[in-house]
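Consider the following assembly input.
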Amino acid sequence: MYRFNHKDLLGMDQLSVSDINMILDTADSLMEISSRDIKKVPTLRGKSIVNFFYEPSTRTKASFEMAAKRLSADTLSLSATDSSMVKGETLIDTARNLQAMNPDVIILRHSSSGAPHLLARYVDAGVINAGDGMHEHPTQALLDLFTIRKKKGRIKGLKVVIIGDIAHSRVARSDIIGLKKMGAEVTVSGPPTMIPVDAESLGVKVVFDPEKALNNKDVIMMLRIQLERQSEVLFPSLREYSIFFGLNKEIIKRAKKDVIIMHPGPINRGVEITGDLADGPFSVILDQVSNGVAIRMALLYLLIGGERGDNLD
Amino acid sequence: MYRFNHKDLLGMDQLSVSDINMILDTADSLMEISSRDIKKVPTLRGKSIVNFFYEPSTRTKASFEMAAKRLSADTLSLSATDSSMVKGETLIDTARNLQAMNPDVIILRHSSSGAPHLLARYVDAGVINAGDGMHEHPTQALLDLFTIRKKKGRIKGLKVVIIGDIAHSRVARSDIIGLKKMGAEVTVSGPPTMIPVDAESLGVKVVFDPEKALNNKDVIMMLRIQLERQSEVLFPSLREYSIFFGLNKEIIKRAKKDVIIMHPGPINRGVEITGDLADGPFSVILDQVSNGVAIRMALLYLLIGGERGDNLD
Amino acid sequence: MYRFNHKDLLGMDQLSVSDINMILDTADSLMEISSRDIKKVPTLRGKSIVNFFYEPSTRTKASFEMAAKRLSADTLSLSATDSSMVKGETLIDTARNLQAMNPDVIILRHSSSGAPHLLARYVDAGVINAGDGMHEHPTQALLDLFTIRKKKGRIKGLKVVIIGDIAHSRVARSDIIGLKKMGAEVTVSGPPTMIPVDAESLGVKVVFDPEKALNNKDVIMMLRIQLERQSEVLFPSLREYSIFFGLNKEIIKRAKKDVIIMHPGPINRGVEITGDLADGPFSVILDQVSNGVAIRMALLYLLIGGERGDNLD
């Protein structure tokens, strides 16, 4: 009999197909709580959830906080900006100190790849990776898989293309691992400077020309251009990026008639996607946000909601 | 039969006299919760309230947060300072993203006039304007009306003078609209640079000399001088402002014997008001703060507390 | 019959031996809540706790917030950084404004010695000093006493040495007062620039040589070197400080075989204490953190948990 048997959620690479299905099924059953008149169930009453974000975040942090509160857990937000906890203290010491306060789950975003894995080794609390460096962002991948399954009825056999800065994106990395595990066919596209040289070792197809990459696809995932970081370095200009790699009404005709367009947000209108497409009938960008709350509720529930893993059988 | 029938509270200009009476009556009935031993009722359990402040605020934000918690709602605070949600994202996109998480009310403070109105058009959640640019600050006006009614037993027919930077104050603007609607007689006073040229079109009397403006008044509202902003531009010096427009023991004799003195806070002692008056028997400045929590509870209750508007009949 | 009869907790100097015993006993009885599956009791439901930190803090603030939530109180966090409440406003006015919102307890950290005492005079709410300037940090002292009592079974008659910047540490000051009241024998040690000239008037022994100071001790309390503040001024170099005053495997042999090592955190590994000692069998540093949550629960309970003081008889 299957059991969800994890203390932490550190990356898509640690999840089996059964784990992923269990998370999506649980999210499905929790989804309607957010549309009730009273958006709250007592499931996690008396549990303490710590949001620990070393990198600024509004969207992901708000999503986790909403998820925790809808399950009646208590939340505590720590940010590294004003954190004396962090001054002159190693991450391990910080971890042990947090642990001494007996939290049930610590949600960590950190600029160093592997930080959540290190934390997880030193605390009894469950650790959820909310993004670590250029490594993984598993809750984003899970909400993406959840959105695809809800819209398409399945993931297996779908043709998915991911366009943008594949090499430096933790979202891309987690999505690729998850999509491959669930049996999708994944193509990546973008400027050569943004495609990892060993991309094919990840099991994906590389098609540099985005028009060709879009051919006959069921799902298009656009990545966000980090305007504040690398724009000068990796491509000549925003305008040029937009012309060659931005999604627009014309090139989308190459994809299937019932294609869905995804984006992890926040979108740069007119850069990686035109406004009319972002707001148009193919876009499921806002569904991703709603689904994100449900996925995070599911994870909190599965990690600490009862005897680990035998809750829903 | 009267019904409070608003999705949002965007400005005093959208409220009828019946609406205002309903809000004040509701605040009256909720007021005592804050002085109970257990300061909490389950009315808004399972509702999500988002505090979204693009401008810094402690006082107003704390008041809304207290109000929400005393009604058992869950609160989530977003600030634009550390907000990745805001980077490269339009207010409309931010609004849609928030909406996708299904909040019940979004409380918005923003430096642009009209921002809450724009937000309200794009979200199903109720929107409360907590101050938009130099436009309106309706919850301040409502708590001011509430304070006057509690202290004087009525608003209609009272003679009210507002002294300070009328031209650039959203508080003054909302107070004037509210006071006029409720039948008060409003006079404004201040340096000519701080009085709008079309002031009389708002239905108020302009009396530049503050001593004359105080004549026979029931209510004095002092506005805060924004030391950090405009002091150099609009008047020669703080000392001069204080001498000509500051409230002191002498000039207050012009007003009625039972005058009340109001100020939206934080006060600059010795600038717009002397310390002895701020702390003296005529001052209702701290009542305003207490009443503010009740007014915000009333608004949350009326906007999302049940079938809109038929709760209290 | 003994009654805990305080409105505020401002300093160790205001507590009697019976008060301290009552606080530790209460912490003892609340301790197990944090290790329950449902870490929450309804004791302070409907109470409002304001965390007001003028100085940055993660550790202490998180500890108070956890404590409040485990007793079901509502919490509100104000920080002075983004605080309009503070601009142009005296602490007394801020206090009165807070009071007008009817909180039950205000937890204040402030860089000025005596700030909590001032606040306490102007508010009906209970005030807890979470550190004021170089004056006191009583909750740290109470959790230290609690930790000693739990580990050693008693405080009276124990030999305690405190090593570090005694002169500028509010932790040292509160610990000394508390330890002396409870009948411990206190020795202090550190560079002469860090020992107050009138140290002996506090009832402690001064032994400049740390090796000698450690002789036959039951408890070693190391203070944190404030790297960010005074390192250049008070001693030649970190390396030198570490060599002469840092705790290491060798010099600890001078102390008793069952000595315990304490530190208020965050620790500077390799400066005031070596990593192996901080993580070793004598260290109770993480117990201090766990005990801190229980002590803060006890204080909130005793200050506002019922009829003051007669709760537990």
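The radius of gyration of chain C is 19 Å. Ask yourself how this observation constrains the way the partners meet.
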